Amino acid sequence: MDKLERQLGLLAALLHTAHPLRASEIHQRVDGYPEDVVAFRRAFERDKDDLRRLGVPLEISRTEAREGTIDGYRVNKSEYYLHDLGLEPDEVVALSVALRLIRLEGGAAHDALWKLGGDAISDDDRPPQLAAIAMGPSVTQLHEAITSNATVHFEYRGQKRSVEPWRLAFRRGQWYLHAWDVDREDSRMFRLDRVEGAIRVGEPDTAQQARLAPTDERQPWQFGSDAESEYLARVAIDRSHAAWARHHLGEESVVADHADGSIEIELAVTNVSAFRSLVLSMFDAAVVLSPIELRNDVVAWLEAQQS
To answer: Is residue 104 over pLDDT 60?
Structure first.
């Protein structure tokens, strides 16, 4: 038996036990460990370290035995397994393909996929990866805070912030947190690389602010720097994408309906690059009508890609 098989056996034993297992019980139950007690202890310590590095929530508690009070070990299922997302088999396959095309650095994609039901793509059918997304410890912390409905505390641009996290997003090479700022009593977007120092996650269920409805949330093209101007953009959208635009951008953004099924929308824009990304996501089904500055920006970007 190799090391991986032994560690999988150890993980299975720690997951499916009604009480914390003492080292002597693990030695008896898990195959692959040396008979010698000293050699077993060395291998067991290395296996525990490996499981922790993989993100396994290994719990240690004191248990009573004939020889006194000693450590017992187990893995809490509620902390180890992802919440059931209710995915159908074909949706798991689609998720597998997505995680193979975009690698989440640090092994997070592989671990998450197995927790969702297994790797649906064989080694021979794996597509080439198109990009890699860095997964730092702050992303993991904030994901856990969102899942547990916990308040988060950190410093941002020299100021202490207490926020109730709603959503993580990865755009243009950066991670963003959309959250409710408790002190400012307003929703805010935070770039994670601008967070200073450590992130502290509060107790579960300490977040109280209900998340805004999608139509009430500020969108990426509405988060701009002080140096950017504000525009009222008018965009023509073909019939093929009209329903999508109505659903995702809100019915109130529609300012004109045409007989052929196409529509025109108006959006307040303070982040030009994010607005350009929105327009280009609809390919040739969207055309910027005004103002000329935004239309020229899209044209210039497209011309630069062809040069």
So the answer is: no
Q: pLDDT tens digits for 187-209?
A: 888 888 888 888 999 998 888 88
Point out the least confidently predicted range of 59-73, 181-195, 218-232, 285-299. 218-232
| Domain range 142-207, CATH architecture | Roll (2.30)
Q: What are phi and psi of 34, to 5 degrees?
A: -65, 150
Q: What's the pTM?
A: 0.38
> What count of residues does the chain have?
307
* Dihedral (Cα; 36, 39, 42, 43), 10-degree rounding: -90
Q: What fold is seen in the domain 3-78? A: Arc Repressor Mutant, subunit A (1.10.10)
Indicate if the alpha-carbon torsion angle 17, 22, 27, 33 is positive or negative: positive
Query: Using CA of residue 142, residue 215, residue 288, residue 244, what is the dihedral sign?
Result: positive
Q: In what order do the strands lie in the sheet with 159-171?
A: 186-191, 174-181, 159-171, 152-156, 195-201
Domain range summary for the chain, segments of one domain joined by +: 3-78, 89-133, 142-207, 231-306
Q: What is the DSSP letter of 124?
A: G
